[in-house]
Amino acid sequence: MIREFKKIWKPYTIGMLWLLGLLWPLLGIHPDGTLSFGSTFRVWFYILVVTLTCVILYLLNKSQALKPMQAVIGRFRSATSAFGAKVPRAFWFGLLAVVMLAYPLLTDRYAQDVAIIVLIYICLGLGLNIVVGLAGLLDLGYIAFYGVGAYTYALLNIHFGMSFWICLPIAAALACIAGCLIGYPTLKMRGDYLAIVTLGFGEIVRLILNNWMSLTNGPNGLLGIKAPGIYIPTFEGGFSLEYFYLKKLYYLYYIALALAVFTVIGVYRLNFSRIGRGWEAIREDETAAELMGVNTFTLKLLAYAMGAIFAGLAGAFFAARMRFVSPESFTFLESAMVLSMVVLGGMGSIPGIILAVIALIVLPEAFRGVEMYRMLAFGASMTLMMLFRPEGLIPAKRVGGRSEEREG
Is the pLDDT of residue 408 over 60? Predict the structure, then answer.
């Protein structure tokens, strides 16, 4: 333990002093020009206690001092896994379905609103997972397909009065076409060049939405979008059908849940199909896949198209949920957020991405009471996660490495 401490104390001390120098301008300089040190040292001391505890646990683990405790945890984990294996999988799925269906009945409006945001990002994360996680194509402009879906429903509903259910497949189809148009010029690119081109296409779509005043109303956005609705039977003065708008949050929650379940099933089926195997072959070594007869051109274009479809569905629902859309909702920051969810959860892993979405959406909301420090804690946790578990929260079982990464 002493030998490990000698290796780590110097970089740890330098890092904490650097953090102190970073925190003081943020917390010690006030808008009125006054300076203080109390709040800076208090926050720094809390961080010091937490990090020092982690360092001590790390050193104890290195010196095998925690081996008895690890053995107990290992036996508990084995017993839990054995119990879970005895219970049929259908039971767990049924229990999850009951919890998800009963969620709006047990929570308030705020919790339902957060859950809807989580379900939207699950659709986006799993859609991007097709492009990044399965096919291995870095896409920094993915949020453009989300915007295409949202504006498709907004324009069709405002100008032609079309319902949400009719516009939903149209939004998916137009997002699919946009995915093909954006994906086609990038098919022969790899690495940094692919990232730059997809980022450029995403910005082009946002600028079109921002500047085409006659169609999109520019930065002012589109207002007056109708919520989803259904026909319900009425018997006042005889039998008739009345159109009922689903404006309440728990109605919208069930629609978002249905879209998320459809996305999970669709991505799962694609993953374990011949197409999914082809995407994985391209991800691990595109040259070898092409030599083995995999049609890389078609499959890469299909990856862009399929990922765009799920983004288009999520975008149409987003427009119906907010009843207002503007270009500010489809910036590069949103693409980076969705990409972070895919990387954090584990590329190619459906449960990992779902867990990452919950972590990145729910945890900042849970720490909203300490708003001044929550993004600092959020960034620190992301950094630690990438340092100590770079493969993701729940790594995919079938995943390899790209040839250029092994050579580098």
Answer: no
